[in-house]
Protein: Probable dual-specificity RNA methyltransferase RlmN
Organism: Halanaerobium congolense
Amino acid sequence: MKDLKELNRSELIDEFEKAGFPSYRGEQVFNWLYKNGVSAVEEMKNIPKKMRQFIDENYELSDLKEINRSTAVDGTVKYLWELNDGENIEGVYLPFPKSGRHSTCISTQVGCGLGCSFCATGIDGLQRNLTTGEIVDQVIKVQKDISGSNFAEPRLSNVVFMGMGEPLANFDNLMKAVEIINADQGLNIGMRKMTISTAGLVPEIKKLARTNDQIGLAVSLHAPNDRLRNKIMPINKKYNLNQLLAAVIKYIEKTGRRVTFEYVLMDSVNDSPELSVQLAELLRGINCHVNLIPANPVPELGIERPVQKVIDSFYETLDRNGIQVTLRKEMGTQIDAACGQLKRNKN
């Protein structure tokens, strides 16, 4: 059975037209799913009984089951969802009251196969890719949670594909989910309000550039030379820094968008003054922004963040060398919801 949340608006219309229903019925179903956030066919009140029966007999609806949640003092919420096959994924809601932003960080895979040295997600390896419906349904679930009975009020303003997994390793399902999330007849979240984070899959970065969809790109860098990055991020052995930066520059040229480089600062690993100078030299002349992220605790990996003095010094070196840089605001760390902490944990 097809999942309705696997289908974009035009595909929904085509499906129901082929079954003998008027085209507007497909539009109504799309609106029920994404303007109203319904999770059952019987909730689609203006759909005739005959059509609801047809849907029940021929389609299914992705419907993540929430099995745990944790809320931090800063308002961050971490969700643990169960998929239909019993696998689990985590996602996060991030509120920014001062700016009025409501952001969600969602997953694209069950686990991760890249094995970055600082990230909890990869500890158990990769189980499988998420379907388009499973990716989209995370956004719907977070939207329903923050808006209660009045769906989309307040509306999610930003979606970041920075949860479990490597988004670009699930390229086709990801990009179809992006299309559905972006549709103005549905969730209507702008392309410029979505960001894809990648560890550096060069062919897929080039492919993303060719779509020219104006979606944001964040690249997990974490080291300014190949020797160190090979140790921290095994993907660098396949696509080294020269290849990665060449792909990023093509992306910038094609889209006109600035790229973010994420740099997790790990105590006595990648936080030395020499490395800050190397990083500034590596990125000089590239239309980019560096997001410094003090490492979040992952007991299984033994990674620790530097002391504040070291963090400040690293920041100041980049700033002094003309690199646009910010220090990421820490959110959700105490509930293991911050960068590098997501995993399939039922505790």
The chain has two domains: 2-60, 65-335. The mean pLDDT is 93. Residues 65-335 form a domain with the TIM Barrel fold (CATH 3.20.20.70). The first helix runs from residue 9 to 18.
